[in-house]
Amino acid sequence: MELCGYILVLWLLVSVVGHGEAASKYTQALTKSLVYFEAQRSGKLPEDQRVRWRGDSALRDGSDAGVNLVGGYYDSGDNVKFGFPMAFTITTLSWGVVEFRNQLAAAGELINALTAISWGTNYFLHAHTAADVLYVEVGDGNSDHACWQRPEDMTTPRTSYKVDASHPGADVAGETAAALAAASIAFRPSDPAYANDLLYHAEQLFDFAKRHPGLYQNSVPVAGQFYSSSGFDDELVWAAAWLHRATGNQTYLDFLAKSSNSGGVRSMFSWDDKFAGAQVLVAKLILEKKNGSNGALSQYKDAADQFLCSLLQKGHNNVKLSPGGLLWFQPWNNLQYTTAALLLLSAHSNHLAAAKATLQCPFGVLSPPEIIAFVSKQVDYILGANPKNMSYMVGFGPTWPGKVHHRGASVVSIKKDPTPVDCKGGFGRWFNSPNPNPNVIDGAIVGGPDANDGYNDDRSNFQQAEPSTVTTSAIVGVLARLTEGVSK
């Protein structure tokens, strides 16, 4: 009897220690994920900037149009500000705060998360200069990609591009509306005046998107070469779902119910395809029985359930897994789709738990803890539990990619050597260098391994080695959720 008691106590101690180590791991990764956004900042850096190898950059953005477009984020490893993926970055960051606020606060990262959001939303407020005018890009992708310079030395054109009533972009206007609406919910408890300002702009942008349909790349062709939109129906329902959550206004629910396109069952969730996100938000309303008697909304939940089941390998058309177990979608920056999918699963697990419900799949019934256990294994893969034993989050764990495809990280810091790096000179000395990057871009998540878990750590391998804000933004809330464990 005494031996059994001793074994039980020992087992409990091991369990507690194991849980503590896991929580500590996810907390460390969460901290780094938010530090990463400070490395991506454009504009005048604040005194409390934690990424010290960065300096001020692009301080005259918008001057060609007589508008203040200083600030915002560089999207990936280049120095262009693309409004379309930047808006999705802010929407998913905000969703993480809205869904997992308490966990972020407990981890001591809520203020940092809100700061990361506001660096983007402040920029959008400046970019939305009139009801039907939104600046959607600063810089030029082609000239920028022809140079290898840290952002502090940029000599490439900083042209400003906009959409308006005569040159519409319902997709980018809708996504920016979603970002501002989601952010308004995130800021409501701590700064209601700012939340009101964000919501005012969100509603204007949604109205602009509805009244002036069209793909933004038809108005701004230079943007389409890099972030081409496949449609705007998804952005409209995504924005409507967030505006309903922010306001409770029935008109947004009516818009969702009357939409001729609810997306059907998706194959991914990304900066170009928001249907699955909107479907999960509507599914939450149905679980809470807040959709009234509107049966038209059930198609959103049905589609959401089918996609989530396919992610969890319990559906009819499951998402591919690599041999090592990673959700695998596409060769180019696959991890952006993985982290976005994990955000959906984590959020929906929250919704199911609140409703005391389970996910009914064709080949199994999954409880919220079982969903989070799957999420945890995916995150563990990203953080190093994979066939390469490499963390795909830079700066986390003993081994991570050293030659990240990122101009600022790969060129010596301007604080260490202020000698300007010219457009072509950066290629010879820095891009083609066999050495690891001189600056560690903590928290950046690279594109990740191929379909067979292979990874080539080389700056020229941009499909695998380039990080992006949309990849890390989606995992912030996921990591926050995991800090409280997988059994809840």
From TrEMBL:
Glycoside hydrolase family domain residues: 26-479
Q: Give the organism, scientific name.
A: Dendrobium catenatum
Q: EC number(s) in its UniProt entry?
A: 3.2.1.4
Which transformation does this protein catalyse, written as a reaction? Answer: Endohydrolysis of (1->4)-beta-D-glucosidic linkages in cellulose, lichenin and cereal beta-D-glucans
Q: Name one GO biological process term.
A: cellulose catabolic process
How far does the signal peptide extend, from start to end residue?
Answer: 1-22
UniProt keywords (A-Z) are:
Carbohydrate metabolism, Cellulose degradation, Glycosidase, Hydrolase, Polysaccharide degradation, Signal
Which EC class is the enzyme in? hydrolase
Q: Which family does it belong to?
A: Belongs to the glycosyl hydrolase 9 (cellulase E) family.
UniProt cross-references to Pfam families, sorted A to Z: Glyco_hydro_9 (PF00759)
Which InterPro entries does the entry mention? Answer: 6-hairpin_glycosidase_sf (IPR008928), 6hp_glycosidase-like_sf (IPR012341), Glyco_hydro_9 (IPR001701)
- Name used for this protein in its record: cellulase
What GO MF annotations does this protein's record show? cellulase activity
